[in-house]
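Give me the 3D structure for Immunoglobulin V-set domain-containing protein.
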Amino acid sequence: MILITLITAALLKGSFVKGFTECSFYKSRETSCFAEAGKSLNFHLFDKDYGGIKELKHDRTIILKRDKTGNVTVNLPNISSAFYFKNGTIQLKNVSKKNDGVYTLEEFNSKGEKLRSSNVRLKVLGVSAVFVTRTEDSHLFV
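Predicted structure for Immunoglobulin V-set domain-containing protein (142 residues):
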């Protein structure tokens, strides 16, 4: 019985400490996303790459820009470190409350005409804790 309880506690703990959050811009034009402070966040910018120019903004600041030739410029003033992957994903490491806000992805054609725009409202939550309690009869509770 104790072994089953320990396995259940480990599984529950694993769901709380996944390590990263994933948010997608292409599933909806307007969506919300929640991330845990201190963890990583993956933004999936697009599912298909149609070329053209892309800009990712945090509130009004352009934090990533990809030109029509594929060159990427990254400007992340409130982020300790980030990685941009060629598949259209940007990973933000160690997110904090400073990263709260609206992220807007705008895509333009080669003439500079806007093709589409989508928003993700990010809310960074405080670090959660998991408590394990042992009773006198050796039961564990999470």
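The first helix runs from residue 2 to 16. Let me know if you want a second pass.
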